[in-house]
Design goal:
Number of domains: 1
Shape: globular
Low-confidence stretches: none
Largest sheet: 2 strands, parallel
Length: 44
């Protein structure tokens, strides 16, 4: 069981790539039961 908070506003390519990566992580790692995206909700 894992909870993760991800700063979705960081990185070189911004929210779209970070959100896509979060979706991949949720699919591949079943032990992640909560993933919080932190940042400007309008951009996320």
């Amino acid at each position: 069981m894992m909870k993760i908070a991800l700063d979705a506003m960081g990185g070189d390519f911004g929210p779209p790539n970070l959100v896509a990566g979060a979706v991949i992580a949720l699919r591949e790692y079943r032990q992640i039961n909560k993933l919080y995206l932190v940042g400007d909700s309008a951009k996320i």
